[in-house]
Amino acid sequence: MRADYDKFAEEFSKTRSAPWKEVSDFLDLPKSAKIIDIGCGNGRHLIEAKKRGLDVIGLDISRNLLKIAKRKTCVPLVLGNALALPFKESAFDSSICIAVVHHFKAEKDRISCLKEIARVTQKISLVSVWAFEQEKFAKRKSPDIQLGWNKEHPRFYHLFREEELEELIGRTEMKQKKVWRSGNNYWAVVDF
What we know:
The protein is built from seven helices and nine strands. The protein is of the alpha/beta class. Helix 4 links the parallel strand 1 and strand 2.
């Protein structure tokens, strides 16, 4: 995954400028809350968090996306993997993990990712994954798919079926507060 995102980081970043509404709504947190953006990409959600006075750190697996985020933000950035977050337990008040969990092929890795989020977060987290029930996937039987960036650089996606994210959350230390579908994504707000 790292090599793929490193190859098309600049092109990918051009398609990711504004924060998603769901993330903006979630970031209505107490000022100076310490938050991590796991899979921060080019930093678009970091910028929004910083504007709100939050103490934010970004983590991504792609060195080239972090270089772009560094140009756009003035927040600490860490190169790392969501399966082994390089932070101590309860290091952050809150966390966001947007469009990351669906990239893991094995269910055990998707669960491990959620457990890592729970390990480093004290209070509340926002997680998003791609929904299987999208019109463009209507003829698919399997929720596992390889999609290329501009027909190149195939990336793995596990498309989540309705209630699947809730089931995975139930297998972790997380407690779901709210799970919903918006557009092509399932969203979950969880606490600990």
